Amino acid sequence: xxxxxxxxxxAVIAGMSIAxxxxxxxxxxxxxxxxxxxxxxGGGTDRFVRAVAVPFEEISGQSMVPISIQGGGGMPAFxxxxxxxxxxxxxxxISPDQIIAHALGRISMDAFQPLARVQYDQGxxxxxxxxxxxxxxEFIAHARENPGDLxxxxxGAAGFDDTVMGLWNIETGAEVTxxxxxxxxxxxxxxxxxxxxxxxxxxxxxxxxxxxxMRPLVVFSDERLPVLPDVPTAVxxxxxxxxxxxxxxxxxxDADPAHVETLYGxxxxxxxxxxxxxxxxxxxxxxRSELLGPExxxxxxxxxxxxxxxxxxxxxxxx
Amino acid sequence: MLEAYGSALAYLFGNPxxxxxxxxxxxxxxxxxxxxxxxxxxxxxLLIPFTFVFDPTAGLLLLSGVYVGSTFGGSISAILxxxxxxxxxxxxxxxxxxxxxxGQAGKxxxxxxxxxxxxxxxxxxxxxxxxxxxxxFALNFGPAEYFALAVLGITAISAIGGGSILKGLVAGLxxxxxxxxxxxxxxxxxxxxxxxxxxxxGISFVPAIIGTFALAEVLQRAGEKTSTAExxxxxxxxxxxxxxxxxxxxxxxxxxxxxxxxxxLPGVGATTAAFISYSEAVRWSKRPQDFGTGVAEGxxxxxxxxxxxxxxSMIPLLALGIPGSATTAVMLGGLTIHGIIPGPLLMETNxxxxxxxxxxxxxxxxxxxxxGIRAARYFALVLKAPYALVGPAIVVLCMxxxxxxxSNIVDVGVMLAMGAFGFLLRKLRYPIASFVIGLVLxxxxxxxxxxxxxxxxxxxxxxxxxxxxxxLLIASLLSLIYGFYGQWKRHRExxxxxxxxx
Lengths: 319, 502
What we know:
The structure holds two protein chains of two kinds.
Chain A: H1 2-19, H2 21-25, E1 33-37, H3 44-60, E2 64-68, H4 75-83, E3 90-94, H5 96-103, E4 112-120, E5 123-128, H6 136-145, E6 151-155, H7 160-172, E7 177-181, H8 183-191, E8 197-201, H9 202-210, E9 214-219, E10 246-252, H10 257-272, H11 274-282, H12 294-314
Parallel strand pairs in A: 1-2, 1-3, 6-7, 6-8
Antiparallel strand pairs in A: 3-10, 4-10, 5-8, 5-9
Chain B: H1 2-14, H2 17-34, H3 40-47, H4 56-81, H5 90-138, H6 143-154, H7 165-178, E1 182-183, E2 190-191, H8 205-223, H9 242-247, H10 249-264, H11 270-284, H12 296-320, H13 326-337, H14 346-349, H15 351-380, H16 387-406, H17 409-427, H18 432-455, H19 460-464, H20 467-496, H21 498-501
Antiparallel strand pairs in B: 1-2
Organism (chain A): Rhodophyticola porphyridii
Protein name (chain A): Tripartite tricarboxylate transporter substrate binding protein
Pfam families (chain A): TctC (PF03401)
């Protein structure tokens, strides 16, 4: 009986939302918004959500909390996201890992309503200080003569890093062998000379670059980083490798368009705030992190799917 | 150096509230460590937003105090309920719970607490004196060395088990086998998931441990006729006497050293340190067959090692900016938010911060002794309740704890299945210790073997001919032979003497 009543009320509310979306949008959000992600507490994505959450709360009066569901190639997090009610209070923080899971046929990007792409990082090939390679040209020349001889430490198996280095191999013909590690082991194995180089973003590698223990050879972006004016981009060398790790918000595919609009407005205001910009700069993510709204982000996702599918196929990971 | 300590002391006394922060953080850490499902990592992650209001030094003091407290906290529930409160304490349950069951819960907690404090202080001293050289030493450990280290730990299976060599080996292999479920660590392909995407996470360590330890124990107790037969009576925690302490001094020294070194290695941390020093304690013991029945060394070894690993894992974080464990990885995130760039320059540019944290961790370890006794007393009160009430409560705690850890319902299923599996192992008298060692060290051995082979282009000689690797692998081989010989000898003697059969 009670459940019948609730259904009736829900139906009435649903009817109202069709009749008067504007009136309802004012009541939204009226409680905490949860953001599911598949990374550890305190990791880059967790910190990203928390950084947006601080100004978001000031602007909207509602809090935003990250929910970390780790492991399994992001599958448990995705499953949890899909099982939740579509009421505008569940988001997912997505990244290239979801594009890869889509390409591998594990999930479908159609399950998402893109909301906002916020961060866009850029990777680099970094070598230890005592490496014989002073420039990327020397690195490429050695790799071309000895295909697969050079080892590059990456994080995670058959994931984002593998795709970037796979694209590098395809584009340059300077074939390197990737060795998957956990992120801290990757750094220690590179510093200790167990592998020849590593693929890492500028932010996490900054400390070791500043101290002179590591040397970046090439950056995967369209333009050089202002902080590393002497490090060439792959693009200027003639190789189209610009894939970078991005962090974004998505809603369930059948989310209420009014909610999408309201939430995007709040998030863009939060991202523009000084509080968020400061955190972004401390993490060295300001160089090409341009905010993309729902439509632009959808177009970006479509491009990404095309690139990742092509690279993963060339790597023999799609079957 | 003295100057640096001077400025650190000036900071601490100039900000008396920092002492309050340390006290708070240790209590908070013990609480998070002792409740299953709330680990030190969660404890640290939850506090990071609160560090915004402090300066970076106070913030890091807070986080490192939580880390210290939580590493000990896990042992309380491991000893009293056979439910490790945090993964680091899983190994402590192997001997801690049997000792508590013998009616010596207070003694077990006392040993755990004293060993934790000694290990913690040892690790902190290593951190204070040797951080830069230790960090450089740790860089010599590549995949080949990690592999050899894991193999050395795994070979202890040959010495564990008391009864049957075969059962010990089977249990160890089952552990190694179950650990292979999930995503392949090198190629990312699915293994033994049977097309079921929810198995991609694999058999996660914490649900597996909580199932095989806690749930299996409740099942076993439920099957016993008189549940009053084993009442844990003595629950007052007392620190071990000087005589008892001296008896474990070599174990403490060895385990603390192992803990500091393994802690300093990135990617492996307190849990691995605890299991490897347990393996070593078994190997060096004159009575290896008694392990698992509640011996003091079986508690002292993992507890001193996992707390020493706390100091150890701060070494690469502060000296190189590489976190040595999952918890320090979260701390690194916290530092970045404060605008501090972790890296080799940190110890030079932020001397005061680094040395204040050194002193803070030292104080935290001493405070842990004081608050640990209190915390253990409160927890122990639960034991006065009849098991018919405690047992079901443990089951509920297992379920919520496993779910809370990662919000993944599949983990609860894994925990239940492993509970049934652990119950069977016990009934058939397979040694749980061997199973768990396989489960913990197997993935490290597999992953590093394959990383190493990719690097050496599948040249096996290149792989084993590295000095550290060669020494560790030869030691493994000798210990394997020695372990089997010891078991075989005991087995033969046991058969020969009528007393053992009666």
